[in-house]
Amino acid sequence: MCSSGAEANENALKLASFHTGKSRVIAFENAFHGRTSAAVAATDNINIQAPLNNQQQVDFIPFNDVDALEKELAKGDVCAVIFEAIQGVGGLDEPSAAFVAQMETLCETHQTCLIADEVQSGFGRSGDFFAFQKYNINPHVISIAKGMGNGFPVGGILVNPVIKAKYGLLGTTFGGNHLACSASLAVLQVLEKEKLYHHAKAMGEYFVERAKELPFVKTIKGRGLMLGLEFEKEVGALRKELIFKHRIFTGGSSNKNLIRILPPLNVKQKHLDQLFTALNACHQ
């Protein structure tokens, strides 16, 4: 356990390097994995990478390009492939099931760790507990945070038993503190008691059906309650109107034509209806 998503991904990448004895990382275009050291080096945004971060060896490839992935892994120096089953800041893009299956196979073939970054998509947000579970794979490491503490700063990694634990390999000052553990346990209890990931899936399906009614929406992305609406033009002005006039906060992404919709997992249909009413009003 640790204190943030970035720290979780740092630990995941470090553990992969320890386990394989290699140092290079493969990440994906538009990825976001954090703002520190190796995590920011694996984030596809040069604007938040300092020269210090550039000492990390990271290469970016597109989702669904098996040939590019195989070419990189065949070089024999890749410790980890890190991916988001649903990209957050990147704009809600998802890899295909066929690609993910081949990615897992290639990682096994080339003795490379597969890291599933579930920092934003985990803990029920996708409609499954983890977004990668849609693909029926077994990552070497899963990084978690955000929904893990429902706002309390906590993160962690789940490690596949094939990676042998060693005392002192990883460490952190505040990881696993009593309050963080209590918060995480409370989240798990509420998720189970209120069946919130099932609710997230149902609300996501309702959202998609309502969004299909909007003629000005180009593409609907995501699943569960990790959603995006893509428009034909940039959404900066629309987001401002939604928050200042309708009191509805939406997220941005590296795709300037897309708004991210990340409501609480206990959101009701009436709340989603408010969003669609506001979107229609903004386009009159």
Main attributes?
284 residues, alpha/beta, Aspartate Aminotransferase, domain 2, Aspartate Aminotransferase, domain 1, three-stranded antiparallel beta sheet, 8 helices, 35% helix, globular
How much helicity do the residues have? Answer: 25-40%
Fourth CATH level, the homologous superfamily of the largest domain: Type I PLP-dependent aspartate aminotransferase-like (Major domain)
Give the SSE order as H and E letters: HEHEHEHEEEHHEEHEH
**Mean pLDDT reading:** 96
Any idea how many domains?
A: 2
Task: Please tell me the CATH architecture of the largest domain by its name.
Answer: 3-Layer(aba) Sandwich
Structure description:
The mean pLDDT is 96. The chain has eight helices and nine strands. The relative contact order is 0.14. The chain has helices at 5-20, 37-41, 66-73, 97-109, 178-193, 196-211, 236-245, 269-282; strands spanning 24-28, 58-61, 78-83, 113-117, 141-144, 156-159, 217-223, 226-231, 258-261. A six-stranded mixed beta sheet has the order 2-1-3-4-5-6, with helices on both faces. Helix 2 (37-41) links the parallel strand 1 and strand 2 (58-61). The radius of gyration is 19 Å and the shape is globular. It has two domains: 5-191, Aspartate Aminotransferase, domain 2; 196-282, Aspartate Aminotransferase, domain 1.
